[in-house]
Amino acid sequence: MPQSPIPSIKAARKSKFNLPPGPKGYLLFQLSKLQHQPIEYFGHMWQEYGDLVRLPIMPGLTLHLASHPDHAEHILSSHQERYGKPDLFLKSMNLLQGQGLFTSEGEVWLRQRRLMQPAFHQKQLVKLHNVILDCVESLLREWSEKPEGEIIDIAAEMSRLTLKIVSSTLFSFLAKGAPHLNT
Fold first, then answer.
1. Distances in Å between the alpha carbon of 131 and those of 154, 156, 165, 168, 179?
2. How much is the average pLDDT of 68-73?
């Protein structure tokens, strides 16, 4: 079997020499920056340290930022069993959200993922094409009406676009799936 391009987190913990690069200090002390400009913050980390960045959050808790498509495939698909969510994360998020897809692991996560998977099949996503296209065209019209030279915050605009697409598709689905809501 070929050697994985990404060392497992457990293997990396054994030696400081195998750890990915990252900033000194704890992310906990940079929450303000992270809260107000998360995309810019993580973009800076990627530019500064590369495709795989080690971000110590606080003693005993580290976040790894994986930016390369090969890393995403490795972590989320081909070797997902090697990567778990920290207990601190699971316990705190379970208190807020219960055991959902985002906050569960193991058999519970697998069962929930299998329930959700059909909604993300290509045949289902094709049905969303027109809604996505309408939202993008609307945003482009807004931008074209702005004065020339006006700065556009792409990160904020992409967040707004994502929210508009999600809400449009979700409410469209609810309205079609629940006719009693239209009365």
1. 20, 20, 7, 7, 20
2. 92
